[in-house]
Amino acid sequence: MNNKISTFAFKHLLKDDNTRLIHGVLKNLGISPSRSDYQDLYQEGCLLYVEAYEDFFATHSPEDLELFGPYAFRRIKWRLLDRVRKETNHQEHCKPLIAVHSDEADEDTSYPDPLASNFEGEILSSAFFQELWDKCTLQEQAYLANRVAGISITKMSKMVGVSRQAIYKWRDGVIRKAKKILER
């Protein structure tokens, strides 16, 4: 890596707000700024920008500057995507094996938290929940009760005999009513 070219590449990155390209790549990959490793990925993107700059201008003339943007975007995107995939695969391999093989493939294998044994009762007795419960329709109440019990939306739709989209509409109604209560 030539230090003079690298210095010029870093200056080009910071000049004319070219860092937007890296933010654009991260946005395109669906990585939001609230993600815990966003800054790490951003810094990696900056380094990849410099690499792309060096490689591109090793074979192209400075007059081809308008071709560099799409090239850099594509290169940074694929390299960051590879990194995110590697991390995801690594995390999957490092997770402890806690699933118990059961005869029924659809059955959840979750273990209750002993510290949260009274959690459901505490939620149901709270003043906010009581007010929300009173404002909800019967379907929304069914949604609330099942979610507090830890039942997934897919299981809930099978139990009640409606589509998941219907359950999502009930959820949206509950959210709207909860927001109204909280705004007061």
From TrEMBL:
**Family annotation (Pfam families):** Sigma70_r2
InterPro entries per the UniProt record, alphabetical: RNA_pol_sigma70_r2, RNA_pol_sigma_r2
Q: Can you provide one Gene Ontology molecular function annotated for this UniProt record?
A: DNA-binding transcription factor activity
Q: GO biological process: what's one of them?
A: DNA-templated transcription initiation
Domain named RNA polymerase sigma-70 region is located at 17-88
Q: Which domain of life is it from?
A: Bacteria
- The protein's name is RNA polymerase sigma-70 region 2 domain-containing protein
**Which organism is the protein's source?**
Liquorilactobacillus mali KCTC 3596 = DSM 20444
Its taxonomic path starts at: Bacteria, Bacillati, Bacillota, Bacilli, Lactobacillales
